[in-house]
Design goal:
heterodimer, A: alpha+beta, 8-stranded mixed sheet, 27 helices, globular, B: alpha/beta, Rossmann fold, 4-stranded parallel sheet, two-stranded antiparallel sheet
């Protein structure tokens, strides 16, 4: 707080500057010593000079943010992060203690481990363990493992989930996938946390499971214990589509209801209201741990506890200040929470209630005297629409959608949840048999209603907008507009110039969004990182979309679902004008089923070949069932739809026959003004030779997608000499089991002076061109190369 | 020193705010200077009940205005007892200036029904009464009179309805304590006087000599 002026919201300023400090600390890496020096020297300025400049005090808050972030994310010399470059991917003995309750999902077990030793070296740090079957470990177990320790890779595709950052925010730097026989439990260490919190959570969980049907039990576990893993995906999806995700996260709504039950309950037993308040504070704090300490619960409990504390101390509360106190406490404990989606959403939702809804609610009060039902309906409607609008930039940024159904869905769901939670608590804690069956059946009915509402609204596609995309700059600018508008409109002193203010807001909006509105005529060729496999996205200057292959589908990884579809969704691609499946190997067509199921496809281009696999058969069935036009590849085909881009099929001709499926690969040549490129599929050397013989110097291109993931059965010296590309790209996985890309191929390419990009090193490779110039952007290696003349 | 540190910390967590106008205060006080200056001290002690008045004399500290309304609302419904203490002090000051103070032997407060007591957790008149008694050094007794009937809030009722509402709502529990006493009744707000009049009636019938009334605000 500035020394001489007094503000109603001291923590608004304190926390804001603290947050600025955390952000600075994240992007500029300070050492602990540096951050201490900054902090101490600023404190010294304040102590020595008697003038307490506001700026210096604010700088102090910023530096304390830097300090907290640096200290929190500091790893000692023995930390695993310092050794990962040596040990990653190697089979090793390691031991440690289990520091989370194991989560069982789809027959697998997941838990986190605090390391003691790797081989015989003392190494510390937290890692994540996946076990491919169900194993019975419990919190506090000491275990010894033998297996690979892997480094999580940062996102290597545009718009994809950054798993590395997600884990790092949780303090986890490595993971290991093991079979049960690779784990040995060698001991157990009891502690207070495991004996009290986990056993009570276990008791509650078992009680819920024993009382309710499976999917209702998993829902109650999510809303009471914060355990979302058992929740059925369709319920999750329905709640998210109907704008009810906040109900699935234990938040202010839930803790508010619980405190509204506890406080009157304790006042019955204790005359002194303060004793009741203190007991409520204690139980709610205990509840934070029961509900897995998710950020929304932390925020809600801290806010309610501060409210109760203020009542005990007989001080007026100020919700805005209290909200920022809560944020300050949470961020001091773990500054990484700032980058957690749940924290951001929960915090912003409350902020919008306090700053926008509250002043408006004042105008709603007269309705209350007429009809309280109408009043509550309008109140809920305004509140949820305000939250929905103000959170829209974030929901678009993170989930690419906004839901309008949420406004209606919340109207029914919030009162329902308000009854479901007390009924559930009654059924859990009051073991009176005949009454219990009454609560449970009532509760089951309400849950049934809630699910119906969420499905009804969530399945209605008109009510939500998908495929939206904002970049971080746009999100920040929108919030800036919100803040500026708020400040301009809420200042009551000068109301006359309202029009001027509105105009200035609109001008601001236009300035921020104009770069997006100006239409860029560029061809985009994106070679996605789908491991060993292919998936190439091509967007023409008139916004036609072509996808060539969809990546692999393995037991636990569908590249179509996890990489290609999210990419297309973020590119706002609603229809594929052409899907090319170069040949039927699974590393090229595996993800296609998911794509066809989720995006409209106009044409599918495939080679005419027989291939006996279930995957291929099912895919062809699906294409037939969906009435998608099928084109069989032939050398005479020139795809005219994509003018000014000319796309020709160079191989195979329609009668082509071979035992080697790779040689059926559809080879495409694209020409756009001065730019030309070749996409080789998995074509091998015999057919490369045929291409040379057939097309001669027409094969001369600027850019080539190397055939067969850099295998030495393709890309001969002669072929490179005939195609004479300047740029080349190999789509291949890290630690490929065939040893792709082969060194000979790389030598051949580099020997010709051709610039080479590899998805295993560079991540997704994206080429942009206006037909005159070429720009290359890589996602993992973050290269950005421009070439002014092709 | 310790108190200064704790106070400045609490001022950060819960910045003190004026109960009258919502402005930030420097210290943990009740009203800002501006609001204090806006308080109107009640002057002409008139009684609006025409007939059947059972109490001898009546005084009140403030005239009811928005600031007093905010104060009493926060005191009664939000449980800020420090406002009660503030009002109690003001009431004590007022009664020290009055002529009838030397005659008073006993101070009581308007009781709350036990259900309301449970809801609210405290009786606002009781807090005022205690505070007044402490300041003027007179005996204070609670639970001499109890409210036996649960009555609706009187805010929306007119004089007639109010009189009817409180009729026979009180009984004396401890008759002996009232015999030949001059009693001062304490309440938060004096609107029509129906409540105080009803209690006065009960006190007189239990053998009390005279009844006086003191409230913090006169509506």
């Amino acid at each position: 707080m500035p020394a001489k002026s007094y503000t109603k919201y001291p923590f608004l300023y304190l926390t804001t500057f603290f947050i600025v400090g955390i952000i600075i600390g994240k992007f500029i890496h300070f050492s602990i010593l540096q951050s201490i020096i900054i902090f101490i020297s600023l404190s010294a300025i304040i102590l020595i000079t008697k003038y307490r400049f506001i700026i210096v005090i604010f700088l102090l808050y910023i530096s304390s943010g830097i300090f907290i972030f640096t200290v929190h994310n500091h790893n000692s010399a023995k930390h695993i992060d310092n050794y990962l470059h040596i040990i990653s991917g190697r089979q090793l003995n390691f031991s440690g203690s289990v520091i989370s309750e194991p989560v069982y999902c789809k027959g697998k077990t997941k838990f986190s481990l605090s390391l003691d030793k790797i081989e015989n070296y003392k190494i510390t740090g937290k890692i994540l363990i996946f076990v491919k079957q169900r194993v019975n470990v419990i919190y506090g177990d000491k275990i010894e493992c033998f297996g690979r320790l892997n480094k999580p890779y940062p996102n290597s595709n545009p718009y994809s989930f950054n798993y590395k950052e997600y884990l790092e925010n949780k303090g986890i730097y490595a993971f290991s996938s093991l079979y049960p026989y690779q784990i040995k439990i060698v001991g157990h260490k009891k502690n207070l946390y495991s004996s009290v919190i986990i056993s009570s959570r276990k008791w509650l969980r078992n009680r819920i499971i024993s009382l309710y049907k499976e999917n209702q039990a998993s829902f109650l576990r999510a809303i009471l214990l914060g355990e979302k893993q058992a929740l059925a995906p369709d319920i999750k999806q329905a709640f998210s589509n109907s704008g009810l995700s906040h109900i699935l996260a234990v938040s202010g709504l839930h803790t508010g209801i619980i405190s509204l039950i506890l406080l009157p309950l304790f006042t019955i037993f204790f005359r002194n209201k303060n004793i009741a308040r203190i007991l409520t504070i204690l139980i709610l704090t205990y509840y934070i741990f029961i509900a897995n300490s998710v950020p929304s619960v932390q925020r809600a409990v801290i806010m309610i506890n501060l409210l109760l504390l203020s009542q005990i101390l007989e001080r007026k509360t100020n919700p805005l200040n209290t909200l920022f106190v809560a944020a300050f406490i949470i961020l001091t404990i773990n500054p990484n929470q700032l980058f957690n989606i749940g924290f951001q959403l929960s915090f912003l939702a409350v902020l919008s209630i306090i700053t926008v809804y509250k002043p408006i609610s004042y105008y709603l009060l007269p309705i209350r005297e007429k009809s309280s039902l109408l009043y509550w309906t309008i109140t809920l409607l305004t509140m949820t629409s305000i939250i929905q609008i103000l959170l829209a930039p974030l929901t678009i940024y993170y989930f690419n959608q906004i839901s309008f159904g949420g406004i209606i869905a919340n109207l029914f769901s919030i009162p329902l949840i308000g009854t479901i939670i007390p009924l559930s608590l009654l059924s859990i804690f009051l073991p009176i048999n005949f009454l219990n069956s009454f609560y449970i059946s009532a509760n089951e009915f309400l849950l049934f209603l809630l699910f119906k509402i969420s499905h009804f609204i969530g399945d209605n596609h008109i009510l939500f907008m998908q495929y939206l995309h904002f970049n971080i700059g746009q999100v920040l600018s929108i919030f800036l507009i919100f803040i500026i508008s708020y400040l301009l409109l809420s200042n009551k002193q000068v109301k006359r110039k309202l029009l001027v203010r509105f105009l200035s807001i609109i001008i601001l909006c236009v300035i921020i969004f104009s770069p997006d509105l100006i239409y860029k005529r560029e061809l985009e060729l994106a070679i996605l990182d789908v491991g060993t496999g292919d998936s190439i996205f091509l967007q023409t200057t008139n916004k036609k979309n072509i996808l060539i292959d969809c990546g692999d589908k393995r037991q636990n990884m569908d590249y179509g679902e996890k990489v290609v579809f999210p990419f297309l969704r973020n590119k706002k691609v609603k229809r594929l004008d052409l899907l090319v499946l170069t040949h039927p190997h699974s590393d090229h067509i595996g993800g296609a089923e998911y794509i066809i199921d989720n995006i409209k496809v106009k044409y599918v281009l495939i080679p005419r070949c027989k291939y006996d696999s279930n995957l291929y058969k099912n895919l062809l069935d699906k294409i037939a069932k969906k009435n998608i036009s099928l084109i069989l590849a032939d050398t005479c085909i020139v795809l005219q739809d994509f003018q000014p881009l000319k796309l020709k099929v160079l191989s195979p001709y329609i009668e082509y026959f071979d035992d080697n499926i790779n040689n059926y690969s559809v080879v495409l040549k694209g020409e756009y003004k001065k730019l030309s490129f070749l996409l080789m599929g998995d074509l091998e050397q015999e057919r490369e030779q045929w291409l040379i013989n057939t097309y001669g110097d027409k094969l001369d291109v600027d850019l080539i997608k190397i055939g067969h993931h850099g295998s030495n059965t393709s890309t001969t010296q002669e072929f490179l000499e005939n195609t004479r590309p300047e740029y080349s790209a190999i789509s291949v996985g890290r630690y490929d089991k065939f040893g792709f890309p082969h060194q000979e191929v790389i030598k051949r390419i580099e020997g010709q002076g051709i610039k080479l990009f590899r998805t295993d090193i560079d991540g997704a490779i994206i080429f942009f061109s206006d037909g005159e110039k070429l720009r290359v952007k890589t996602i993992l290696s973050k290269k950005n190369i421009s070439d002014d003349s092709i | 020193m310790k108190k200064i540190i704790i106070d400045s910390f609490l001022n950060l967590l819960f910045p003190p705010i004026c109960f009258g106008c919502d402005k930030r205060l420097k210290k943990d006080e009740i009203l800002c200077k501006e609001c204090q200056s806006k308080l109107i001290y009640y002057q002409n002690d008139k009684i609006y009940l025409k007939d059947n008045v059972y109490f001898t004399d009546y005084i009140s500290v403030f005239s009811y205005n928005s600031i007093v309304q905010n104060l009493i609302h926060n005191f009664k419904y939000n449980g800020f007892k420090k406002i009660g203490k503030f009002l109690g002090k003001e009431m004590a000051k007022k009664i020290m200036q009055s002529k009838f103070l030397p005659q008073i032997n006993l101070i009581i407060s308007v009781p709350l029904h036990r259900i309301k007591m449970r809801e609210r957790g405290f009786n606002q008149s009781d807090i005022l009464g205690k505070s007044v008694a402490q300041n003027v050094h007179l005996p204070y007794k609670k639970n001499i009179i109890v409210r036996t009937r649960y009555t609706e809030t009187q805010t929306k009722l007119d004089i007639k309805a109010r009189q009817k509402n409180v009729e026979n709502a009180f009984i004396v529990k401890n008759i002996g304590l009232l015999k030949n006493k001059n009693v001062l009744i304490i309440d938060d707000v004096f609107t029509t006087g129906s409540t105080i009049n009803e209690i006065s009636k009960v006190i007189l019938s239990a053998g009390g000599k005279r009844v006086y009334a003191l409230t913090s605000a006169h509506a």
